[in-house]
Design brief:
It is built from two helices and eight strands. The chain is α+β, with helices and mostly antiparallel strands. The strands form two sheets. It has a five-stranded mixed sheet with strand order 2-8-7-4-5, with no helix packed on it. A three-stranded antiparallel sheet has the order 1-3-6, with no helix packed on it. Helix 1 packs antiparallel against helix 2.
Amino acid sequence: MKVKFMIVYLVAGAAFLGVSLWVILSGGRSAAAIRAKYRLGGIMLTALAMLTAASCGGGPPQVTCYEPVVMCYDMPAPTDILSVGVKDKEGMKATAGDILKCSIQKHTFSEYVLKITANNEEKTVLQTKTFKVENEETDPFEFELKLAPGSFKGEATVAVYSRHTDGEGKVWEYPLSEQPVIVIF
């Protein structure tokens, strides 16, 4: 099968060169020469595609300019999925003294930082607390945070960050997930 397509490709290539010479000699004014050149180009592209398809024999796929460069079929499973709720209440309205019940499904880190930030221009941090995973096999990792009293009233965002310490003792925090909550302190 490959031999047939290779012969067709070579014959079409030789004819394409001849027609290209005809177009050059006619100064590009011959409509028949240009039409023949387009048709032979199409035949060459088709034969090349068929030759490529016929050459797939179980080995690694050959990338051509007609195939996507990145082939990503397996999507990674989502991790560190945050869910936040107000304990013993429905909805996301909370006041000082209420307890935020947080859950992280499929956790991948051993230390998390929860920050409640005001949704204002200054992005004022209202409350912060660090939580350590005691048992790595616990899924979901659940923790609670009692809202401290304050003067803020309005919308806020609960954000969870993973906390890492590098080899030099420097602490890094990476944002993982956010969830809006209405907080009235």
